[in-house]
Amino acid sequence: MKIGIGLPTTIPGVTRAQVIEWSKRADAAGFSCLGTIDRLVYPNWDSLVGLGAAAAVTERIELTTSVLLAPARESAAVIAKQGATIHVLSGGRFVLGTAPGGRDDDFEPFGVSTKGRGKRLDEMLDLIKRLWAGEEVGYAGGVGPDVSANPPPIIVGGQADAAFRRAAKYGDGWMMGGGPPERFGEARAKLEAAFRDAGRKEAPRAMSLTYFSLDDNPEAQARSTIGDYYTFIEQYADMIVAGTAKGVDEVRERVIGFEQQGCDELIMFPASSDPAQVDKLAAAVL
């Protein structure tokens, strides 16, 4: 199983220097990817802009939105252009992970409704794939840099049955957006069934994200940052904090658990923006 690491771009007060140093250390340590999680109404960095910064200071690590709330954004063409730019800037290392989302406050301020967001995501993915394949629009031709020879992979998130069908129709795989390893095996089976039903011969890429803290006081750190990020539902925030892998032993157990359930790649998101967390996680699991 591959191990990726999340960028600390959702941690309040994270600095440019921390993100750049974090990216460099993750690239050198051997993590499979740098991930970003996404909200629009929160003082986090923009997912795509953050990965653009990481692309400029890394050489080998993949750059994955895990996941981007595409339906909350107004334009699939803009997402396609930004993603293609990161892909070219990084030498072909961008992965578009996306899901429908469900928080009204991430949609309403931008004049977009959560109603019909699944259908909207289908339409957006269809357009993004066509644009990345080189489809021309307007008098000037394509949208963004030409990535048709090597388009970015697409990973779809979501727990509903429609998410697995969407992954099989438009994507290269699926990502679980949190939860214990025990839930992953059943989800992977649904993913593989969806690919078979769609006539796909290749094996899907099955991924998940999880949270970790190797800080001096992991419980307090997780509550102050991860808990704050999920305060829109207090009970859910408590559950996410409780489920954060705290300390080396729990981190290693989390990795083993997902590996045993058939996860292909696990992206581990931090509770703090201290770049030393990259080195600590690498020492524990790589």
Give a short account of the largest sheet: 8 strands, parallel, barrel
**Structural class per helix/strand content?**
alpha/beta
Q: What's the arrangement of strands in the largest beta sheet?
A: 1-2-3-4-5-6-7-9
Which ranges are low-confidence, i.e. pLDDT below 50, for 5 or more consecutive residues?
Answer: none
Average pLDDT number: 96
Terminal Cα span: 10 Å
Share of helix among residues? 40-55%
SS element count, helices? 10
| Percentage of residues in DSSP E strands | 15-25%
Shape descriptor reads globular
Order of helices and strands: EHEHEHEHEHEHEHHEHEH
Task: Tell me the number of strands.
Answer: 9
Q: What's the gyration radius in Å?
A: 18 Å
Describe the structure.
The structure is a single chain. The chain is an alpha/beta fold and 286 residues long. It contains 10 helices and 9 strands. The chain has helices at residues 16-29, 47-57, 76-89, 117-132, 161-170, 184-197, 218-229, 234-242, 247-260, 276-285; strands at residues 2-6, 33-36, 62-68, 94-98, 154-157, 173-176, 205-213, 245-246, 265-270. An 8-stranded parallel β-barrel has the order 1-2-3-4-5-6-7-9, surrounded by 8 helices. Helix 5 links the parallel strand 5 and strand 6. Helix 3 crosses helix 4 (117-132).
Tell me briefly what this model is.
With 286 residues, the chain is an alpha/beta fold. It is built from 10 helices and 9 strands. 43% of the residues lie in helices and 16% in strands.
